[in-house]
Amino acid sequence: MKKLFSALAIAAIALMAAGCCSKTDGGFKKNSEGAIVTPVPARPAGQTDVIGLVTPKLETVRIGIVGLGMRGSGAVTRLSRVPGAKIVAVCDVEADRVEKAQKNLRDREYGEVAGYSGSTEAFKELCERDDIDLVYVCTDWVHHVPVALYAMEHGKNAAIEVPSAYSLEDCWALVNMSEKTRLHCMILENCCYDFFELSTLEMAKQGVFGDIVHVEGSYNHNLDPFWHEYWQNWRLDFNQKHRGDVYPTHGFGPICQVLGIHRGDKLNTLVAMDTKAFNGPKHVRAQGGQDPDNFANGDVTTTMIRTEKGRSILIEHDVMNPRPYSRMYQVVGTDGYAAKYPVQQYCLRREFLNGEPIDYSNLKGERTLMGEALAELQAKYPCPILTEDFVNLAKEVGGHGGMDFIMDYRLVYCLRNGLPLDMDVYDLAEWCSIGELSAISMDNGNAPVVVPDFTRGAWNKLNGFSYAFAPGDGPAAAK
């Protein structure tokens, strides 16, 4: 945060000179509508945006995986099954994890891969190799950005687990590096590839729900059984040090795709609030036996966002309390509604379904579809990246029911065919920036905060979210 305040102080001078904002008692600047404005650094000279970025086709995507814990170990298995992908090297601080990954591949007759371990700097040797096209980053959150920046500096595309960044400074650093190097920097948001989300996105694109007016997403997941699994207790430590929605992207990413964020709409203003940290300190005591002087992250954080087109977004974070797992995922349109949690359902106007007149006797002009009726409706709007054989393969390989494999497959497919990725560096920055932006709002009495335009003006170059396909493949091809 100290670096952010320094940057804000510098930006304040420029803003005062421009006369566009007024100073607040907290040292931040506010725009004419009273919202806090964070600095948007000027694009470095000679750089342009990377909307629709493509890189040269790759017959084989050669991959180095950094971080072999809970997420990275699964990535090793999945990527070894992706057509056209070749794992070249693996890296982790802990040597035994590297040896386990190498044995995993060797036992399945995959062949030998190079291994790097021994320090938090070991990834640099991997990134410096000349036979790697993609560095796949699955470390603890603190090391995501250093690894990705170093990878791009050394000519590699980067794919980063979630949340890929936390601070605004790091979000801008990744944007600038991707623009400078003209290399991909993708957020590994697997929930964008869950089957319900894929179906609902296609239905939304085809107008089933009418105009989308409101969406909701969350990460509500009781982590009591998992805190001790994180290397050197890094996740609980991060929550102790950072306020705000520190893990927004599972719920936020899929709904941003529905809205077409920086593809015809953009995030404008955010307001956030949190509860007191009730359970966080208890977990610290359970892990280390000492009462913490401070625990920054409240048990529940809630964030509201308004977009340029006047739509609203609600996102929530709670990993401390014994509530049912939920990413909420709700889409509200002028003609319909979709929800995944707690029950998968669609709600549509009756006339959309079968032309029935409204039944005024029971005051219902809509019809809710679940179970078989829901599946029948989804079948009318198939996701273009899925075929029956590909779905079966994804479920066989697995990773949260197959969505992890679909994510990996699409990443490799696009790199092999020289296509824009499904998620670009601006998605990464927009989705991850909620962490620090929500903290700024909370630290300033739940004040509104302007969400920066990480595209620096290119947010409406595209019209809606879409998947790219190689010539001759067409929609619904998985080759």
Please identify which CATH superfamily of the largest domain we are dealing with.
Dihydrodipicolinate Reductase, domain 2
What's the alpha carbon Rg, rounded to whole Å?
Answer: 23 Å
Annotation field: number of helices: 16
CATH architecture of the largest domain: 2-Layer Sandwich
Could you please say which CATH topology of the largest domain applies here? Answer: Dihydrodipicolinate Reductase, domain 2
CATH class of the largest domain: Alpha Beta
Mean pLDDT: 92
Range of helix content: 25-40%
Give the termini separation. Answer: 46 Å
Number of strands: 18
Give the percentage of residues in beta strands: 15-25%
Question: Overall 3D geometry?
Answer: globular
Overall tally of domains: 3
Structure description:
This protein has 479 residues and is of the alpha/beta class. The chain has 3 domains: 2-37, no CATH class; 61-161, Rossmann fold (3-Layer(aba) Sandwich); 192-386 and 437-450, Dihydrodipicolinate Reductase, domain 2 (2-Layer Sandwich). Helix content is 34%, strand content 17%. It contains 16 helices and 18 strands. The protein has a 9-stranded mixed beta sheet with strand order 17-16-15-14-10-13-12-11-18. A 6-stranded parallel beta sheet has the order 6-5-4-7-8-9, sandwiched between helices. Strand 8 (157-160), helix 6 and strand 9 (185-187) form a beta-alpha-beta unit. It is globular and about 65 Å long.
